[in-house]
Design a protein that fits this description.
single chain, alpha+beta, 5-stranded mixed β-sheet
Length: 190
């Protein structure tokens, strides 16, 4: 009798045991079937999702603050962060190319100057999901001074430098201020 079918059967048994004992397969807990097997994704897609989450969490919401008081400041206290300015610049002026050794663009020696150009509060009005509130506007002009270097590798390798590159970005910061007595939960006006 030949040992070949016995060795093939033994190898299949060992392969099934090895598959059943690796990774997340066979772990006690809720059984998701084929969905319990992790699927690898590329770092590009993961970075893109993380950036979308960061922007939505950090800059995609309008905060609701307490009411303005007569003796408190009615000016916006938070200028845009450097991260917010650079993300706005990348949306307004995306880097073209980006192919290593063929076409690369770099922004170096950046200096950001932020100027407040307007700061005002709208009159009170009723906002459906908030209630009575005032919208506080703050407009900023952000000037970015930087050195732009572009390395071109094909067909003729050369490097272009713009030592005095300037980009102007306008950023608006808006937030709400509640109006009136925010602690009273019932309407006492009859």
């Amino acid at each position: 009798m030949s040992k070949k079918p016995f060795i093939i059967g033994l190898n299949l048994l060992l392969a099934c045991m090895a598959l059943g004992s690796t990774g997340c397969i066979g772990v006690a807990g809720s059984n998701l079937g084929i969905l319990s097997i992790p699927i690898p994704i590329s770092p590009y897609l993961q970075d893109k999702k993380e950036d979308q989450f960061w922007i939505a969490e950090r800059y995609g919401t309008v905060p609701i603050l307490g009411p303005l008081t007569g003796d408190g400041p009615s000016v916006a206290l938070d200028p845009p962060s450097d991260d917010e300015v650079l993300r706005a610049m990348q949306r307004a002026r995306p880097i073209e190319g980006g192919l290593p050794l063929l076409n690369e663009t770099q922004w170096n020696e950046m200096r950001i100057v932020k100027e407040k150009i307007a700061d005002y509060v709208d009159p009170p009005r009723f906002i459906p999901t908030i209630g009575p509130a005032q919208l506080h506007h703050a407009h900023y002009k952000c000037t970015i001074y930087f050195q732009e270097t572009t390395h071109v590798g094909w067909p003729v390798p050369h490097t272009r430098r713009n030592e005095d590159a300037v980009e102007v970005i306008y950023i608006d910061h808006n937030h709400f201020h509640m109006v009136g007595n925010t602690d009273a939960g019932v309407n006492t006006n009859y």
